[in-house]
Amino acid sequence: MKNRILERARLAVVLAAVSLIHGLTWQSPLPARGQRSVDPKRVLVLYWYNKDFLWNVEFDRGFKFRLNSAPPGSIEYHQEYLENDRFPGEPQARLLRDYLRKKYADHPVDVVVATSDASLEFLRRHRSGLFPGVPIVFVATQYPTTAEITTKPGLTGIINISTHRRTVELALSLHPATEQVFVVSGTLEHDKRLELQARQELQGYEGRVQLTYLTDLSSAQLIEKMRSLPKRSIVLYVWQQSTNDQGKLLESVDLFALIAPHTHVPIYGMLLPLVGSGIVGGYVNTGDDEGTKIAEIVLRIATGTRAVDIPVERAPAEPIFDWRELRRWGIRENKLPRESLIRFRELTLWDQYKWRILAALVILWAIYLVRVKQLERQFKTTLEARVAERTRIARELHDTLLQSFHGLLFRLQAVRNMFPRRTEGAPEALDVAILMAEQAIAESRDAIKDLRSESAEQRDLAELLTATCKELTTAHGKNGDAPAFRVVVEGKGHNLAQVLQEEIYRIAREILRNAFQHASACNVEAEIRYDDKLFRLRIRDDGKGIEPQLLSEGNRPGHWGLPGIRERARRIGAQLDFWSEAGAGTEVQINVPSATAYETSHKGWRFALFRSAKSNEQ
Fold this sequence. Notes:
Distance between the termini: 70 Å
Structural class: alpha/beta
CATH topology of the largest domain: Heat Shock Protein 90
Radius of gyration: 49 Å
CATH class of the largest domain: Alpha Beta
C-alpha cells in the first residue's frame, strides 16, 4: 500500500503540473490549426447514495485520481446519484430514469459505471431505454450471469465484500483455539444473497470449525445473540441493512455499532468503515482502491478494449487492523501479514518525541563527558599539588630536622668524648641522650618515607607489602624475635586505582607496623583477594591481640594509629572491620567495591576522592 501511495503522489505532482498548462478541464481542448478534433469519451458513474456518503467520496477520489493519467481532455466524467435511501420506490426510480434520458439525450455516454448492487440493478432494468449499446462496469457483491457478461455491449467489473475465505483463514491463524464462526449478514429484501455468497466462499471450512449463519436478524435479535456467544468463537460481520422498531433504516455501520458493545469475542470484517468501530480487522475493501480499479477498466474500454474481453475480478483488498483491538485480544503485530496496515495506533511518549529525547540525551551525555574531563583535570591538579607538597615537606624535613638531629648527635658524641674520666651519672645521661637522638632520627626517617609515594615506584600492592615486611623485620628483628610473614594473592589480578592503592598501602603499612612492634606475634599474614565485584585485603597475626577498650576508644593518648586508619578508610569508601581477642591475635579486613577499586571500572571513586580532597583542603 505504501508503494501505491507513493506512486499516486508522484503521478499527482506530474498531473498537477500538466493541469496548470492545460487548464485541467474535463472537456476536449480546442484543436490547433491543422489538427483533427478528438471527441472525449463520456463516462457516467451512478452512485448509490448522495455525494457526501463516505464510500462515495473515497470511490470518487480513487476514480478521478486514476482518470487523471489519461491525456488531458480525453475523458469527460459525469456523476449521478441513485439516492434510493432518501427517495425509495419504483415511482422515484422512473423519475430518475426519465431525468437521465433527457439529460444525456444530446450527450451520448460511452461507459456507464454502477458502484453498488442497487445501481447495477437500476441500470439492468433501464439499460435499453437509457444507454443502449453502452458497456457497464460495476461494483457488486454477486457475479453476473454468463449471458450478461457475454451479451453485447458487455458487462464487467469487480466483486466486493468477497474476502470471506482469506479473512476467516487469517482470523483462525490468530485465534487457533477457535471452534465456531458466526457469520452475520442481511439485506432489506431478505433474499439471503449475502449468506449464499458467504457459503460459497467458505466451502471446506465445515470440517475445521462449526459455521453458523445469522442472516436477516433484527437488531434486538442480534444483540441477544451476541451476548450469548460461546468462548472459542469469532464473528465474521459481512454486511447487513435493517430497520428498527420505528421503521427507520439502519445502515450496516449503524447496526454494527449497536451489536459491537455486546460482543465479547473477536469480530472480523471486510469493510473499511468498520475498522475503528470494533472489528479486529480483516482483508478489507476500500473505496479508494475500488475506484482506482474501476477507472483502470474504464480507460481500457475507452481506448478500444471490449468489455467482454475484460474478466470480472475480485475487488482489491488489503489486510487492515485496528491497533486497539489487537491489544484487546492480545494479538502480536508480528503475527499479521507483512503488508498489513495498522490504524488508530496510540503513540507513546517515546513514539511522539523520540528524536527530541535522543537529541536531549546526546546533549546531556556530551555535557556529562565535558564535566567528567573537567573533574579529572581538577583532581589530577589537586593530586599533583598534594604529592608536590608532601615531597616538599619531606625534603625540608631532611634538610632541616634530620640535619639538626645529626648535628645534635655529633655534638653530644663530642661532649661524651671530652670526659677524661667518667663523672658520676654524666656519661649515662649523655648515653641516654644519644639513644634518644638515634630514635628521633629513625622516627623522622620513617615519617619521611611515609610522605614519599612509593606507589609510583612499585605498582603491585603485594610487592609493596612484601617490601614493607622486610623493612620491619630488619628494623625490629635485631634480637631474632621478628615474626614470620607471608603475602598471599588470590583471584585474577586487577590494576588498583593509583590513589586508592596508595591509601590502602598506607593503611596496611600502619597495621603491619603495629603487628611487628606491639603484637608480640610469631606469624603475620597479608591476604590480597581480587574479585570481580570486590577487592579485599585481610591482615592477621597470632599475637596478644588488642585491648577491647582501645578498639572502642580508637587510640592511646598521643598515638595516631587507629583513628588514622579509620579516616583513610572513610576517605576511599572502604569497609573496615577489626576482630581481636586477647591471646588469639588480631585480624583486620578492608573491603572495597570493584567499581571503586579497579582502574578498568567506572570512575565514581574519583569523584568521592575529589570531594574528600576538596573538603580536606578547606
